[in-house]
Amino acid sequence: MKLESAAPAKINLALHVTGRRDDGYHTLESLVVFAGYGDRLTAAAADRDSFSVRGPFAAGLPGEANLVLRARDLLRERFGARAERPVALTLEKNLPVAAGVGGGSSDAAAALNLLVRFWGIDAQPAALAEIGVRLGADIPMCLAARPLIARGIGETLEPVPSLPPLSILLVNPGLPLATPVVFAALMERENPPLRALPPDAGLAELVDWLRRARNDLEPPALSLMPEIGGVLGQMRTEGALIARMSGSGATCYGIFKTPGEARRAGIAIAGRHPRWLVQATTTMTSTPEFGHA
Q: Would residue 257 show up in a list of annotated catalytic residues for this protein?
């Protein structure tokens, strides 16, 4: 038996840091979407457990500390004998590590979703989210993998079913940027929350809303890695309706009117910067099953 699961890139269209808790976690409000591009995880029957990684960013991934293995082990801790059957896991790593698009969190969410299918466990979404949040605050939203607003430390989720699919270009300058370092450089930790989204917003209304929103981590990330400014400038030059950094960076997104415009912008930018990750994609409105064409 062999099963596969997508682990899509998570894109923070807006990210407002609204405070800091006594335990050191930051509270936030973020409009999140998921791309039709990302990593892919495969589970196959085996005589013993194994884990292998392939793909363009396999070399940058931690080994035994990988979140996929931790997700596997937490499922076994929770479900005992029902999760004992050995499994060979293969991760196709298409997203950079420490890139602000939730690669590790999405991989862990894919592992949780995939392994309960592999082992035939009837696990409710709330139970998986409870396990996921032990691995990271982003994992419950990655388990949902659809447009949503995340609040708190990322665990309180509000679906946004009316958000249209977006033609997006993802660009990363090929440099890692660790999330704790970006938060440490954040000057203001108590900022206004997101404004209410307009109901049934089309592309023009959403872009207008985004222009009045922020990513509060973008200024500290720019101070640490000025190359991010060059990425944003490239996308604006190529006609992006809006260009902004995702998460804690250094990946940036640009929204374009059509998939064709996003692809053409990507070809132009990749031609000038062949070492950058440049990927045109479309955001999803439901749980992912995608390819990488």
A: no
The whole-number pLDDT of residue 292 equals 35
Give CA separation, 27 vs 20, 23, 82, 94, 137, in Å: 6, 11, 36, 29, 11
- Fold exhibited by the domain 2-159: Ribosomal Protein S5; domain 2 (3.30.230)
- Other CB atoms closer than 10 Å to residue 122's CB: what's the count? 7
- Same CATH topology for 2-159 and 167-282: the answer is no
- The residue-averaged pLDDT of 175-179 equals 92
Q: Give Cα separations from 17 to 85, 186, 199 (angstroms).
A: 42, 9, 23
DSSP 222-274: HHH-THHHHHHHHHHHTT-SEEEE-TTSS-EEEEESSHHHHHHHHHHHHHH-T
Residue of 277, 4, 28, 268 lying closest to 149 (CA atoms): 28
pLDDT score, position 24 = 85
The one catalytic residue among 2, 10, 22, 23: 10
pTM, two decimals, is 0.93
What is the secondary structure of 123-191 as a DSSP string? --HHHHHHHHHHH-TTHHHHHH-SSEEEEETTTEEEE-TTPPP-EEEEEE-S----HHHHHHT-S----
Q: Please say if the pLDDT value at position 290 is more than 50.
A: no
Instruction: Provide the residue ranges of all domains of the chain, joining segments of one domain with +.
Output: 2-159, 167-282
The CATH superfamily holding the domain 167-282 is GHMP kinase, C-terminal domain (3.30.70.890)
For position 155, what pLDDT does the model report? 87
Share of the chain above pLDDT 70, in %: 96
What's the pLDDT band for 40 if we cut at 50, 70, 90?
very high
Find out whether 256 and 173 touch, Cβ atoms under 8 Å. Answer: no
Question: Active-site residue 2, yes or no?
Answer: no
The one catalytic residue among 39, 107, 138, 216 = 138
